[in-house]
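Design review, sub-item: ligand-bound model
Attendees: FS, YL, KQ
YL presented the inputs for the KG4 complex:
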Amino acid sequence: MSSPGSLVLGIETSCDDTAVALVDVHGAVISACVASQAELHTSYGGVYPELASRAHIDKILPTVRTVLSQGDVDPRGLAAIGVTRGPGLIGSLMVGLSTACGLGHGWGVPVVGVNHLRGHLRSADLEESRVKYPAIVLLVSGGHTQLARLQSPSDLQLIGSTVDDSVGEAYDKVARMMGLGYPGGPIIDRLAAGGTPCVQFPRPMYGRGFGLDFSFSGLKTAVRRYLDDHPEAGQADVAAAFVDAVLQVLVYKCRAALQEFPAASLVVVGGVAASPQLRAAAAELCDDLGVQLCLPPLKWSTDNGAMIGLATWDYLALGIACTLDAVPGLGMESF
Ligand code: KG4
Ligand code: ZN
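KQ shared the predicted structure:
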């Protein structure tokens, strides 16, 4: 039985996964559970916010109970409960926050509101410590596409961001156009692996002069037009052309960031970091530049409670008593 004082309970409900985990200060995951809502949203081709909130309400206490019993832990001695306070869907965030506050009050345990994006950043140090500083981090998720410099786990400076859609959103929307279900990332990746690019889609904001910012909405529109104009095109080949365009942009921007801000490691996190194609492309880039690549284990790439738990330890070490209000548009640089 682990000593509860050495553990944080991480709770994540910002989008469509009800995720809870027990994590120690080194990022060891004692137990974890994710109740996925993917099936609930698949017919909508994206997350249906009201359904997401209701599913969180149904799933959160059973998920907490599972994690505590698997970890064989008495929650009254936990070091803290860390819970996502933003960014995310307001209803989903509220379920996590109010549950965490109730549990913390009942157990006599402090509750810390955590930035979901800082959770993703820390996912690369789960199970073992990987990140070497200074680092450049590429965060590619359903809601965000950002580049940042990291001097330490919590010292962060944003250096690039999408001006419109995120990469994950582009994957999800392209999958929806093709009638492939949600989430689109894994489906598109699998299709693309068996296809050959049938067209050269535009590489948005590619090249000098665009800095480190991204844009993906034009690419999504280009795919839509191509599908309209070429109903005979094979889905796998269109998926391959789309993935090619995305990867070329992501790798180009990471290379530019590493050239502008020399770093010991490149950290790639967020749901899209589960993409085997992106993992391979990032590995090739890092080999080329002699930089260490740090990736979260696959299961910690998409939303999970463990990353929130590990980020909570940073907040505790810094003495950051973050507020417990839900902030749907919380930025990466905030706590
Ligand atoms: O980080 P995440 O779980 O949730 C957010 O914070 O948004 O990211 C979800 C996104 C979705 O857009 C999903 O399609 C994408 O990550 N994703 C992938 C893969 N697995 C999930 N994208 C590409 N390849 C994957 N294997
Ligand atoms: Zn996320």
